[in-house]
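// run 5 | inverse folding | seed 20
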């Protein structure tokens, strides 16, 4: 049986939808302690119909955040553990010959779900990683010449360990570009870590989550996000940021037109999550590093040591309208 709220239970009106987002943030905040900005970004990413890449050290809650999102939003959930021997067929599925019928029958892989967790995606070879490309971009997979649509909604949340760790394969730029956002969890603050140490098992808490939404509600929320007002000065601001990434001596490759569209979609979704009447400069600044950090190629001579620092340089270089 599908978890979550049914179409008959779907709240109507803006206030009811906003309340759903508020409940989702509160629920997730009980599992992932002290990380409300990361939770807001993750929710904004899904509401913008994007895919999310979570990159950080092992043990900081990357997988737990993905599982908690699926339970909170009432989505069908499948997990794929990426390893060095993973094959594309392990992701998309395979055709099996049935002797009784004398025909091949397609057995769907775990990609046929509403929220798919690609856990430790950079531990698989590029060939296995490529199995996600068509699914993430076109919401479909092609096997043996047959194209099959994926479910709606469809999201991929991938986790990866830092690239300098043993047994990792860097994600190619073409795959990185398919993730709307890349976020880091980071260490918890002292109060949150104390609560984690003294509190109960977080995985057991995830199993007890009562969904605050469902697939139909999520689709309705996404439609509301796309209607979020974006003023002309905000469009000018986003264009100025994109132009600076292409002209700055600190950056070799700036944002593409798809990158600028990603900024708009993410800013609209963040404004919705924060209950703003329209998109503010604060929304653009809040999502900029998550959207642009993995798309920019820094110059070899840059003085900025991390994507976050490089993105902050761009934000500091462009006047706020």
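// decoded
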């Amino acid at each position: 049986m599908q978890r979550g709220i049914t179409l008959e239970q779907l709240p109507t009106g803006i206030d009811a939808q906003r309340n759903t987002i508020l409940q989702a943030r509160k629920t997730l905040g009980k599992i992932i302690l002290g990380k409300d900005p990361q939770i807001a970004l993750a929710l904004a990413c899904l509401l913008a119909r994007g895919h999310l890449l979570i990159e950080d050290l092992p043990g900081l809650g990357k997988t737990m955040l993905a599982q908690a999102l699926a339970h909170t939003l009432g989505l069908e959930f499948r997990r794929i553990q990426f390893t060095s021997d993973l094959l594309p067929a392990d992701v998309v599925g395979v055709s099996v010959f049935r002797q009784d019928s004398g025909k091949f029958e397609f057995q769907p892989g775990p990609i046929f779900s509403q929220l798919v967790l690609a856990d430790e995606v950079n531990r698989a070879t590029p060939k296995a990683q490529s199995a996600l490309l068509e699914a993430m971009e076109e919401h479909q997979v092609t096997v043996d010449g047959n194209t099959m649509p994926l479910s709606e909604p469809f999201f991929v949340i991938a986790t990866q360990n830092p690239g300098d760790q043993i047994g990792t394969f860097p994600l190619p730029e073409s795959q990185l570009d398919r993730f709307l956002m890349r976020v880091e969890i980071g260490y918890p603050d002292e109060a949150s870590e104390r609560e984690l140490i003294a509190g109960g098992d977080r995985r057991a808490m995830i199993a007890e989550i009562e969904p605050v939404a469902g697939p139909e509600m999520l689709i309705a929320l996404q439609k509301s996000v796309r209607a979020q007002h974006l003023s002309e000065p905000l469009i000018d601001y986003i264009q100025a940021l994109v132009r600076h990434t292409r002209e700055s001596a600190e950056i070799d490759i700036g944002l593409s037109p798809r990158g600028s569209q990603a900024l708009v979609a993410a800013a609209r979704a963040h404004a919705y999550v924060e209950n703003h009447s329209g998109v503010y400069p604060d929304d653009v600044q809040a999502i900029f590093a998550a959207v642009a950090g993995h798309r920019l190629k820094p110059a070899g001579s840059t003085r900025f040591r991390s994507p976050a620092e490089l993105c902050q340089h761009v934000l500091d270089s462009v006047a706020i309208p």
